[in-house]
Amino acid sequence: MIPVNTPFLNGNEKKYLNECIDSGWISSEGPFVQKFEKNMASYDGRKYATACASGSAALDIAVKALGLKKDDEVIIPSFTIISCAQSLVKLGIKPVLVDSHYETFNMKVEDIEEKITPQTKAIMIVHVFGLSADIDPILKIAKKYNLKIIEDAAEVIGQEYKGKKCGSFGDISTLSFYPNKHVTTGEGGMLLTDDEELDKRAKSLRNLCFSLDPNKRFIHEDLGWNYRMTNMQAALGVAQFEQIDKMIEKKRHIGNTYNKLLKDIKVINLPIAKTDYCENIYWVYAITLKDGYKKTAKEVMSELKDNKIGSRPFFYPMHKQPVFNNMRLFLNEDLPQSEKLYEKGFYIPSGLALTNAQMIEVAEVLHKVLV
Ligand SMILES: Cc1ncc(COP(=O)(O)O)c(C=O)c1O
């Protein structure tokens, strides 16, 4: 089986993990956590970073740190992971959904303004699958209506928008270090900001809102979470970060190689290699079936599995999620591109440990299946 993702752990990961065990520093108090935070903050050109338990945890913290509360509205794409919407819904905040472009997988900027109401307090930008969202017009709208920006850069560590790193655009930006990300800590996430107050709140929320005053140790003014990252996770992160340029280069190599190997298959759309503002980083190699093709994405994925090739479906849009519909959310939404992406899209093996020989094998099977 060629799995859809295999992480690449060939640097100092073991050495740094051994240091944790030898020194006894295995909790979040260990030195790798701050080192990893410094590394990521300076890489993305931010002043402050808060490492935490996952990308989903980072979104929970971001929403609360910004002071968003019940009955506020936040604009998000429907075509994204549930972490984005649930970080809002769990606090009684209303996600207001916009559709996405079929070609770039990113939110339709031109649909944002009509969704703004007096309750709108923020826009959550999510960069999807490897191309950055079109940031400038979103920032312009945010400025016009005085809205905060949460930037979910989980999938695009190392990507740039007009030469500036994704992760540098939000009032608060978030990352994920799940093993399919460009830098992994097994599980993990991070918040990035330039605002000292937001950073303090993020660090407090990550740590159960413990008081910083030693005399008030178990006296709490607010509710947070234990979303801390362990020193062992951060040790992996520091080792991974040492190879970040190589990781990004490898991702682009995978994307460019598949582009060549798959270009003559007539029934699929390959991912866009370049837009006016960014070059694809191919977090995953995402394919859509052309209109009129006889097979569904589900059928293609099942045939790939029969041929020992891993694949994954695209996101199921937020407005179709039973959990939200059961809460009477999004019942009359019409966001056709998000729905079509789910029906026609899937991604193929694109992890950092993928070899050229494996890509050739994947391409051969796709040629056989996509007839
Ligand atoms: C856009 C986006 N946001 C957030 C997350 C959540 O990250 P995690 O799996 O670390 O909770 C993911 C996960 O892949 C993601 O793709």
Features:
371 residues; alpha/beta; four-stranded antiparallel β-sheet; 13 strands; 36% helix; binds pyridoxal-5'-phosphate
Summarize the structure in words.
Helices cover 36% and strands 15% of the residues. With 371 residues, the protein is α/β, with parallel strands linked by helices. It has 12 helices and 13 strands. The two termini are 22 Å apart. The strands form 3 sheets. Strands 1-9-8-5-4-2-3 form a 7-stranded mixed beta sheet, with helices on both faces. It has a 4-stranded antiparallel beta sheet with strand order 10-11-13-12. The mean pLDDT is 98. It is globular and about 70 Å long. The site of pyridoxal-5'-phosphate has 13 residues, from helix 3. Pyridoxal-5'-phosphate binds next to helix 3.
Short description:
The protein is an alpha/beta fold. It has helices at residues 13-23, 31-43, 55-65, 82-89, 135-145, 196-206, 231-241, 244-262, 297-306, 322-325, 336-344, 356-369, and strands at 48-52, 73-77, 94-98, 120-126, 148-152, 160-161, 164-165, 172-176, 189-193, 268-269, 285-289, 312-313, 345-348. The chain is 36% helix and 15% strand.
Residue stretches low in confidence (pLDDT < 50, at least 5 long) are none
- Structural class, by secondary structure, is alpha/beta
Spatial arrangement of strands, main beta sheet: 1-9-8-5-4-2-3
Estimated share of beta-strand residues: 5-15%
Mean pLDDT: 98
Series of secondary-structure elements, N-terminal to C-terminal: HHEHEHEEHEEEEEHHHEEHEHHEH
Bound molecules: pyridoxal-5'-phosphate
Largest sheet: 7 strands, mixed
Number of strands: 13
Per the principal axes of the C-alpha atoms, what is the gross shape? globular
Kindly, what is the distance between the CA atoms of the first and last residues, rounded to a whole number of angstroms?
Answer: 22 Å
Q: Helix count? A: 12
Radius of gyration: 21 Å
Percentage of residues assigned to helices: 25-40%
